[in-house]
Amino acid sequence: MATRHTAYYEADDADKATRQANRRPRNDVPRKTAAEALDGESGVRGGRRLLVDTHRATTRVLRVAYPFLAEGGLGADGTYIGSDVFSGGSFVYDPWVLYQSRAITNPNVLLAGVIGSGKSSTSKALITRSIALGHKAYVPCDPKGEWTAVAEAMGGATIKLGPGLPARLNPLDAGRRPSTVASDEWQRIVWSRRRALLGTLAESTLGRPLAAVEHTALDLALETVSYHAAPTIPDVVVALFTPDRAFAERAGLRTTNLVDDGREVAHAIRRLVHGDLAGMFDGPSTTEFDPTLPMVTLDSSWLGSGGNDEVLRLTLACASSWLEAAVADPAGGNRYIVYDEGWRVMRDPALLRRMQEQWKLSRAWGVSNILIVHRLSDLAAVGDLGSEARALAEGLLADCSTRIMLRQEPDQLARTASLLGLTDVEIATIAKLPKGRALWRLPNRSFVVQLVRHTREVELFDTDARM
Ligand SMILES: Nc1ncnc2c1ncn2[C@@H]1O[C@H](COP(=O)(O)OP(=O)(O)OP(=O)(O)O)[C@@H](O)[C@H]1O
Ligand SMILES: [Mg+2]
């Protein structure tokens, strides 16, 4: 006769579990009765008792015998997020641990959900809790300034950038040379970082890729200013408007040609010196990046750009270049880099190209990029089908092994399902998720997880105060 089911969870040990599973007599695993129970009649989640034999097995065996009821989870190594809605067990996540165990192929995370569904709260919980494990976090994109209080509570720092504010960053800062990198190699790294930034700024402002002659003009201007101890953006603008004769001759050019070639680039970059971004990136840094802090955020809510995302994008380009110097240090530990409201900066191919490079380097740098968007169609909205921007944005999705889906609007479900390869059950689930509950989708597994917050976190993560 069937008796009440009692499953004892034991430590998950692959060898032990396999041996046990092989050794048990067939009738010890109550497949038939369990299958009947799962068949809907007895209402698995309806609170009725399961009529199966009492037995004991490891979670590895149980999760196969009772799918959804005895989920083995992702292990206990990592940051506690909340409860697995189906199994009731704890859900723990750590991209670096999961990368090592090959559960994911890269540490990057895409987080999507409708307005107010709990995207920021989920990422804040993941990050603040993982600081206890020694991880660090940088938030270079915080257009609402909502990470400032979180950074303060964690003993981190916030840099507030905006017209008239005292903080100024020199995006051409070399940063600290890691002890493992030789001096001449470091010079090359710094040169290429500066060059990449100047190219991004020029292309972003001009709204088109640079011509070959403009690349040459920019190369020579950067080479000229690289002899300064701490070159700044105004130095580059001057070098573009008045090229150095010796450098021009060495490149087989006349200075008059160079002036013509670099004129548009010079005007584009000049915007950071005399235009609407003046005073933020046009001189020596007033603050030093402290890589030992657990959290550094960049509050761009003071930019006053309103609906103008272009200023935000240029700020992100400068700030992330400034951050890169610290991120590339192999001794810096594992770091999260969060792009909250990431959809606002994704319209620009030049910036997307830089983000894609960072995504590709994530494993080498020990970095997990977290991109927060409203819906997956934000990635398609960056450009027409076949455009470079769209290919780059959709490439970012492909490079995010973990996709955390909070509630999606009904008109987004079909697209989400096809991009992520979701099952019908998963689609039905994300259509009805309440606040703070998300589908965590990893390459071969998915979990529905309810974020569990401490009362202190509820206060700290609240973004409804003004409502
Ligand atoms: N698990 C939860 N239970 C109840 N309320 C929650 C939960 N998670 C978040 N909230 C609340 O919902 C509100 C919105 O959360 P949050 O700011 O994280 O959403 P969001 O998706 O980032 O919003 P936006 O699209 O505006 O950026 C916050 O005030 C937060 O306290
Ligand atoms: Mg948010």
Automatic annotation (TrEMBL):
InterPro entries: P-loop_NTPase. Residues 1-33 are annotated as: Disordered. It comes from the Bacteria. Gene3D superfamilies: P-loop containing nucleotide triphosphate hydrolases (3.40.50.300). This is ATP-binding protein. It comes from Kribbella solani.
